[in-house]
Amino acid sequence: MSTLRANLQQLRRSVAVLPADGAALPTDAGGLASLTGLQADPWQRDLLLSRDPRMILNCCRQSGKSTVTALIALFEALAVRDSLILLLAPALRQAGELLGKIKDAYRALGPAAIPLIKETELSLTMANRSRIVCLPGKEATIRGFSGVTLLIVDEASRVPDALYMAVRPMLAVSGGRLILLSTPWGKRGFFHREWTEGGRDWHRVRIDASQCPRISPAFLEEERRALGTWWFNQEYLCLFEDNVSQVFATELVLGAASSEVLPLFDMPAILAQTLGESDQIAPLFEVMS
Ligand SMILES: Nc1ncnc2c1ncn2[C@@H]1O[C@H](COP(=O)(O)OP(=O)(O)O)[C@@H](O)[C@H]1O
Ligand SMILES: [Mg+2]
Prior knowledge:
By secondary structure, the protein is an alpha/beta fold.
């Protein structure tokens, strides 16, 4: 039964990507990447061939994580009719940049690809009714999509948790895939949490600068001097560093916390008892902080 279903799925994909002249396009995103002229790095190739439902890419600046994700998105749109692919980033402009990469890859395919029936600055609609849409980076305006086939969160470490919580349910009924990609940004937020505590649900990929053939050791040395260790570790070594302004390391703070010890003082309550008026308390806290 499952073989039959797999065969049907494969057939559906092949038909969906049939170009006008009758020659079939590749049946996986790896083949699609080659058609666009990209020689994928080994880790990019693995990702292009993966069908894992949850992928998290902790990869250094300029390693090619947006490029590979753009190709995964494009393949999904071509191969699965009626698919809905959402692009989320900290700001709409950044989601638009990822869409720009998808459009570039699409154009590189030439007339072989399924035609577009609508193209705007922030979306693409194909003749097989697949859509790729950029989401605004604001929680209040983001709801309303369902049946999402693939959700991509670019620069994920900078996307607020509330936004992540708002988009995840869009995958609930469709069983769609989720890809998070970013460099780290301190030990905070969902990107760090999913990377460190997300369990076995995630296919994790970490690519530091030494694994990217396009970044030279000489450039890296210059960057280390210019950025300093903290930034360099984060941007090029993909390390989740403590926040710059933090006095104590996160591990120290977490290790010291205990639910068995009650706080010695409830400062706001004591001040309220002593001073009575609440508007006298706020300025005091400003002085203390
Ligand atoms: N396999 C590759 N071969 C050649 N160039 C690549 C490859 N992957 C990415 N690039 C190029 O490297 C640059 C950075 O890629 P990008 O995907 O924007 O990186 P990131 O999102 O990791 O910062 C782009 O100019 C892109 O075209
Ligand atoms: Mg990028």
